[in-house]
Amino acid sequence: MVPSDIPLMGADTVPGTAPSTALPDRPRISCPPSQRPVPATRWLARQPGLGIAGLALVVPVAVLLAVGAGGPEPSALVLGPLATFALPAVAMIAFWWEDWPGSSLRPGWSGLTDTALVVAAAVLLTLLGQSVVGALDLQAIVNPAPGAGRMATFPSTMPLAGAVFVAMLQLTLVCEGWPLRRLPRFPAGVAALVAAWIVAVAA
């Protein structure tokens, strides 16, 4: 049993008050074992069943993505920058927004909603990365060899994408959100993403 005065996953401890938009005292990844929820008893709701069920969904999708651009190598050249630019958005949704907007929906739609948001962010942030390192080129995002005089996203945008993700991890996990943690979680997440981009561009 967990004492009632210990917050669970950042929840408010004052009875009768509305849920706070402030971030919890620590990121979920560093939540001590005493504050974690009781493990589920169903086999598919806990490990290793949950992991096996996840693989059954992820592996076919990964195979389709691996050949979607004409083979493994062209697909990697297209998806590499998109996936790397998406990582800071994933960190923002997971650690700063606490899985919102998916957390406000039914379980069947929560993951799809967050995934759609990450995909949209990946495209937009890749376009932003293009404009920083060269010129905006919509076709180059999905074409690993856009042609003479045009810059492919791989490898030209990868140093910037990696730097943004490292800066986001530093601010989110190493600094544990300081000093942006004082803000409500939604503005704090956006501010963290913007700050990571500023640091990466400056670097």
- How many strands, which pairing sense, and closed or not: the largest β-sheet? none
Low-confidence stretches: 1-13
Overall structural class, as computed from helix and strand content, comes to mainly alpha
User: How many individual β-strands?
Assistant: 0
| Subunit arrangement of the protein | single chain
The Rg value, from CA coordinates, equals 20 Å
Helix content: 55-70%
Provide a descriptive summary of the structure in words.
There is one protein chain. The chain is flat. Helices cover 57% and strands 0% of the residues. By secondary structure, it is mainly α. The model is unreliable at 1-13 (pLDDT under 50). α2 packs parallel to α6, α2 crosses α7 and α6 crosses α7 (185-202). The chain has helices at 49-67, 72-96, 107-133, 138-142, 153-156, 158-174, 185-202.
State the gist of this model.
The protein contains seven helices and no strands. 57% of the residues lie in helices and 0% in strands. The longest helix has 27 residues, at 107-133.
